[in-house]
Amino acid sequence: MDIFTGLTVWAVEAITLAILLLSRWFYEREDFYLGWGAGFCLHGLGIILIVLRGEIPDFVSIQIANTMILGGVGAWIAGFLQFDGKPVQGYAAIPALIWIAGMFLNPVRESFAFRTALYNGAAMTGYAIMIGMLLRHSGPSRLTRRVLAGFIAVQFCASGLTGILTVSAQATSFGTTRHAMWLLFPSAFCFVAAIMSGAKLLTERSEEKLRALAVTDPLTGVLNRRGMIEAFHALQKVPSEEPRILALLHFDLDSFKTINDRFGHQAGDAVLIAFSRIGQSSLKARGQFGRMGGEEFASIVCVGDVVEAASIAEAIRMTLKRQPIPFGEHEIRLTVSTGIALSTAEDADLDLLLTEADRGLYAAKQNGRDRTAICSGPDVSVVPAADRPADEEELTIADPNQQVAVLKKLAALGKS
């Protein structure tokens, strides 16, 4: 098999893969499919133009063809950026720009050997960028990325060797150099390897998405009940030299059914989404926030003491109260009641925390809603609300002395 037959086979395979990737993009609308598909398409078409050298103008079969091939390398780089959820960066165009710039130099443009060296140098730059991107990633599929980076490194080394051998032999065409097949074999090998590694990368990505869907509420995007259970156990296992306190905050939107009855279920969905955003932003990465079902939400957070837990709950309560939620021509105002339960991390039992937080939530509802209550064993205390008049506080707190005692007890727990 001569070099042009091999290049033709490679071009057909590249275009076939491009069609498959672009078809996948058409159905799933994932941008990285478009980037990778465009890369293989440009690569395949560029190689076809090279195969047609002698039958089409040299400007097309040399300058345009190699620009397309290197543009395909840039499209692959863009695809990797999109695969990782990053915006496409200008450095994706560097390989093609190196080739274009080199073509303005007469000694390079007029010499097959120098053109080959320039092309391989530009391709090596693109490969180096992709290797760096793959190795820097420390998230899921790290091993698969390293394997793929290894295959690209093989192509990187082969391209460098091809450029050196072509210049040293002062080759004048593909047919006059003994090392022409170096242009084919590494590409064919890396093509097959890239398909296998890329397929595994996509499979692992799909599995990761399925795992995320299993622990995520589809409406609000926050964790669901299962996700909160996993988050609790993960937070409980975080190593620490000092005793830690876990707080479970159980939220329930007040009079939520009224919102659905008055404005419709779409308004109810908008309220749930808005409250989820408030809850997540208020935590500021200090814990996990999720939807337990219906209009009930929960947060699991590591706190220093009961005051910090109450402060978080009050911040969420007051933020929701002060921020009307726009829906069409309406502004929906609502409040939330919260129950809090605390325990040391090593002794924390999720079922017990949920039970105590439910008791606190019930007390908050009984004391007029729009309140925060803390449960500790048999004692339940309602947190004084800063946005309520003092006389109203006296009416809603059944036993102030008991509340003070419970707060002191919980504060002591936080310091132990």
From TrEMBL:
<feature type="transmembrane region" description="Helical">
    <location>
        <begin position="147"/>
        <end position="168"/>
    </location>
</feature>
<feature type="transmembrane region" description="Helical">
    <location>
        <begin position="64"/>
        <end position="82"/>
    </location>
</feature>
<feature type="transmembrane region" description="Helical">
    <location>
        <begin position="33"/>
        <end position="52"/>
    </location>
</feature>
<dbReference type="GO" id="GO:0052621">
    <property type="term" value="F:diguanylate cyclase activity"/>
</dbReference>
<dbReference type="InterPro" id="IPR029787">
    <property type="entry name" value="Nucleotide_cyclase"/>
</dbReference>
<protein>
    <recommendedName>
        <fullName>diguanylate cyclase</fullName>
        <ecNumber>2.7.7.65</ecNumber>
    </recommendedName>
</protein>
<dbReference type="InterPro" id="IPR050469">
    <property type="entry name" value="Diguanylate_Cyclase"/>
</dbReference>
<feature type="transmembrane region" description="Helical">
    <location>
        <begin position="88"/>
        <end position="105"/>
    </location>
</feature>
<feature type="domain" description="GGDEF">
    <location>
        <begin position="244"/>
        <end position="377"/>
    </location>
</feature>
<dbReference type="Pfam" id="PF00990">
    <property type="entry name" value="GGDEF"/>
</dbReference>
<keyword id="KW-0812">Transmembrane</keyword>
<feature type="transmembrane region" description="Helical">
    <location>
        <begin position="7"/>
        <end position="27"/>
    </location>
</feature>
<keyword id="KW-1133">Transmembrane helix</keyword>
<keyword id="KW-0472">Membrane</keyword>
<dbReference type="InterPro" id="IPR000160">
    <property type="entry name" value="GGDEF_dom"/>
</dbReference>
<feature type="transmembrane region" description="Helical">
    <location>
        <begin position="180"/>
        <end position="202"/>
    </location>
</feature>
<dbReference type="InterPro" id="IPR043128">
    <property type="entry name" value="Rev_trsase/Diguanyl_cyclase"/>
</dbReference>
<feature type="transmembrane region" description="Helical">
    <location>
        <begin position="117"/>
        <end position="135"/>
    </location>
</feature>
